[in-house]
Amino acid sequence: MRKKISAALLGLGIAGSSVLMTGGAATSHGYSDNPPSRQILCAQGKVKNCGQIVWEPQSVEGPKGFPTRGPADGKICAGGDVRWAPLDDPRGGKWPATKLASGQSVNLTWRIPVPHSTTDFRYYLTKDGFDPTKPVTRASLDLTPFHTVPYNGRQPSSSVSHPATLPQRSGKHVLVAVWTINDTGNAFYACSDVEF
User: Count of alpha carbons within 13 Å of 15, Cβ hemisphere only?
Assistant: First the structure.
């Protein structure tokens, strides 16, 4: 009887540790939520068949240095991490798109459950003529960010909003948001589908 109780308690301890370790991983980092990023649309269940990202929308982390370094072309939306590969799938151009207008002022926002020392936030848009049925590549992006917010090593709060004016565009596009971490070799990536 004692062996059964000990085995049961041991099993509960292992299960509890697993839950705590998994929960800890899911409470770190951050994601872009305005315009809604692909990862938050997946986590909210608005887009299906997204894989593991539904549990970790804040974890799209990859090498920093974009656009000269960082994730490979076609893997930018997933930060180059194969676990989040469904974010790179253009889904035939059918990702839900936020309606925007050229010249519009917009608040670009991030939710950051655990802040990091930050270099900057940068925002890129695909060029006019972008084909939304294709993955995002450097060739499809205007590689000069339309908005940059320097942080010089400071930590952002749990929610940050960056007022920006949108450049001239028409049709469907992808907005790529990059949060560059100051004291690691990584950055966080978020792709938002938009329509002008």
Answer: 6
- What is the reported pLDDT for 114? 81
In a domain, 147, yes or no: yes
Q: Is 139 exposed, middle or buried (0-12, 13-18, 19+ CB in 10 A)?
A: exposed
In a domain, 123, yes or no: yes
Average pLDDT over the chain reads 88
For 46, the domain range is 30-195
SS3 track for 128-150: CCCCCCCCCCHHHECCCCCEEEE
In a domain, 107, yes or no: yes
> Which pLDDT belongs to residue 74?
98
Average pLDDT of the segment spanning 135-147: 98
Into how many domains does the chain fold?
1
| Cβ–Cβ under 8 Å, residues 150 and 180 | no
Q: Is residue 82 part of a domain?
A: yes
Quick one: how many helices (H) and strands (E) in the chain? 2, 9
Q: What pLDDT, on the 0 to 100 scale, is given for residue 5? A: 41
The CATH code of the domain that includes 165 is 2.70.50.50
